[in-house]
Specification:
Elements: H1 10-18, H2 20-41, H3 46-73, H4 82-99, H5 107-139, H6 143-172, H7 186-221, H8 232-239, H9 242-272, H10 277-305, H11 307-330, H12 342-379, H13 384-413, H14 426-451, H15 458-477
Length: 479
C-alpha cells in the first residue's frame, strides 16, 4: 500500500503544516502593516502604496502557473516538489528584510523600491507555497483526512501571523519618547522584519525536512513518472476544467473579502472603535481563539455537510456575524468607544466571524485536492502543481483587489495622514465604516451562492478511489 492511500500520521501533519508559518508572517505583514507603514510612517500616499502592492500581487499571480507547471515537470532524486521547497528558504527571508528597510529617497524611487521588494517577496514565497500545497493530494487520498491535514497549515499560518502581530502591537510598535503613537514607531518595524525573516527561514526548512522521507519514498516507488501538462495548451485545458473553474469562482469572493478586511483592520480598530495599543494587542491575541475554533470545528462540519455546503454555510455565517457590530453601530445599538462593554462585545462577534471565515478557507483548499484527483481520473494527467498555482493565482489577484480597494477607500474618505484616534471628523469615520461593511456584505453573499455550485462530493471521491483501486488490482494480477 502506498503512503498516499493511508491517513497521515499526526507528526507529518504537524511538520507539513508548520511550513505555513512563513506564509502567515508574510500575509499578516502585507495585509495588516504594509499599507499603514508605507503610508503613515514612510509618508507615501495611501493610493500609491496600495497601487504598488496590487501591481506586485497581479504580476506574481501570473508567475504562479509557471511555477506550478515547472514543479509538476520537475524530475529529481528527491521528487518533484522538494527541490523547490529547499531552494526558496533563503530568498524568502532576505527579501522580507529588504521590504521593511526602504531607502530615504524621492517618492518615485520609494514607489519602485516598494514594488520591486514586494514582488521579490511574493516570487520567492510562491516558489515554496505552490509546491507545498501541491503536496496535499500526494500525501493523502482520504477525503476528510485532507481537511484534517490542512487544519495544521491554517493553524500555524494564523498562529505565526497573529503571534508576530501580538509582539508588534505589544512590544515593538509601542509609544516612546520619539514616537508618541505606537503604530508610528519606525524602529519597531525594523525589529519586526528581522523577527519575521527568522521565522520564515526556519518554517520552510522544517516543513521540507519533515515531509521529505514520506513523499520521496512514494516518488521513488512509482514505476513511471506521472504524465503532466507539457505545454501551454495543456495548461489551459487543466484550467478550463469545470470543477476547478467553479472552485475559483467561489474563491474570488472569499479572498476579496479577506484582503479587504485585513487591510482595513488597523484603520477600523483605531478610528471606528478608537483602540489604543493595549486593545490592539488584546485583539490580535484573542483572534487566535477563532483559529482554535476553526481547527476544532471544520472537520466535523465537513463530515456532516460535505465540503461545498459547509463552505457556503460558513461564508454566510461569517458575513452576518462579522458585519453585525458595524450595522448595529449605525443604528446606535452597539457600545460606543470608551464603554466597558465595547471590547468584550466586539471581540465576541469578530472572533466568531473569523472562525467561520477560516473554516471556509480550509474547506476551499481541501476541495482543490479533490479537483486534482478528479482531473487525474478523467484526463489521466497529474497536475497538482498547476491547480495549486491556480488557487494562489486567484487568491493573489483578488487579494490585491481587496488591498487596492482599501487604499482607494482611505483616499476617497480623505483620512488625514498620521491621524490620531478620536480626533478625526466623525463624518469621515462613519463613511469608513459604511463603505467597508457594505462591500463586505455584498461580496460575502455572492460567495455564499458560488460555493453551492461546486460539483464534487464525498461520494464522487469514494467512487473514484474505488475504481482506481480496482484498476490497479487488475493490472497487478495480470503482470
Amino acid at each position: 500500500m502506498s503512503h498516499a492511500s493511508e491517513k497521515l500520521p499526526l507528526k507529518t501533519k504537524v511538520l507539513y503544516g508548520f511550513g505555513a508559518a512563513a506564509y502567515g508572517v508574510k500575509d499578516n505583514g502585507f495585509a495588516v502593516f504594509l499599507l499603514y507603514y508605507y503610508n503613515q510612517v514612510v509618508g507615501m500616499r495611501a493610493d500609491v502604496v496600495s497601487l504598488a502592492i496590487a501591481i506586485a500581487l497581479f504580476v506574481d499571480a501570473f508567475v504562479d502557473p509557471v511555477i506550478g507547471q515547472l514543479t509538476d515537470r520537475t524530475r529529481t532524486s528527491i521528487g518533484r516538489r522538494h527541490p523547490w521547497l529547499y531552494g526558496s528558504a533563503v530568498p524568502i527571508a532576505a527579501a522580507w528584510l529588504f521590504l521593511w528597510h526602504p531607502p530615504e529617497a524621492s517618492a518615485t524611487v520609494q514607489f519602485f523600491y516598494l514594488l520591486a521588494m514586494a514582488m521579490l517577496v511574493r516570487f520567492s514565497l510562491s516558489a515554496y507555497e505552490v509546491p507545498s500545497l501541491a503536496l496535499l493530494p500526494e500525501l493523502s487520498k482520504d477525503y476528510h483526512d485532507r481537511t484534517s491535514t490542512l487544519r495544521f497549515r491554517t493553524l500555524f499560518g494564523w498562529a505565526s501571523g497573529l503571534g508576530i502581530m501580538v509582539i508588534a502591537y505589544g512590544i515593538l510598535l509601542v509609544p516612546s519618547e520619539n514616537y508618541p503613537v505606537g503604530l508610528l514607531n519606525e524602529d519597531g518595524y525594523s525589529s519586526y522584519a528581522i523577527m519575521g525573516a527568522g521565522v520564515m527561514l526556519i518554517a520552510v526548512l522544517v516543513s521540507a525536512i519533515g515531509t521529505h522521507k514520506r513523499v520521496v519514498s512514494s516518488y521513488k516507488a512509482e514505476a513511471t513518472h506521472p504524465e503532466s501538462a507539457e505545454d501551454f495548451s495543456q495548461m489551459l485545458e487543466a484550467f478550463r476544467y469545470t470543477p476547478f473553474m467553479l472552485l475559483m469562482f467561489a474563491g474570488v469572493f472569499a479572498f476579496t473579502n479577506q484582503g479587504l478586511t485585513f487591510a482595513m483592520t488597523p484603520y477600523l480598530l483605531t478610528h471606528v472603535w478608537e483602540f489604543g495599543s493595549s486593545e490592539l494587542t488584546l485583539y490580535s491575541a484573542v483572534l487566535f481563539i477563532g483559529v482554535i475554533m476553526a481547527f476544532m470545528l471544520v472537520t466535523p462540519i465537513s463530515v456532516r455537510t460535505g465540503k461545498p455546503k459547509g463552505a457556503a454555510f460558513l461564508t454566510l455565517f461569517a458575513v452576518i456575524v462579522g458585519t453585525a457590530p458595524y450595522w448595529l453601530r449605525m443604528a446606535d445599538f452597539f457600545p460606543e468607544p470608551g464603554s466597558a462593554y465595547l471590547v468584550p462585545t466586539l471581540f465576541t462577534f469578530l472572533v466568531t466571524g473569523i472562525a467561520a471565515s477560516i473554516s471556509a478557507m480550509i474547506l476551499t483548499m481541501s476541495m482543490m485536492a479533490d479537483v486534482a484527483d478528479a482531473y487525474e481520473f478523467e484526463i489521466g494527467k497529474r497536475t497538482e502543481g498547476l491547480f495549486s498555482s491556480g488557487m494562489w493565482f486567484m487568491q493573489k489577484m483578488v487579494g490585491g483587489m481587496g488591498i487596492l480597494l482599501s487604499g482607494l477607500i482611505i483616499a476617497f474618505i480623505q483620512l488625514p495622514e498620521q491621524a490620531i484616534p478620536g480626533s478625526v471628523d466623525p463624518a469621515i469615520v462613519d463613511n469608513l465604516a459604511l463603505i467597508f461593511v457594505s462591500l463586505v456584505t455584498v461580496v460575502g453573499m455572492a460567495g455564499t451562492w458560488a460555493y453551492t455550485l461546486f460539483p464534487l462530493s464525498e461520494q464522487d471521491h469514494s467512487e473514484r478511489v474505488a475504481k482506481l483501486s480496482q484498476a490497479k488490482s487488475f493490472v497487478e494480477q495480470n503482470e
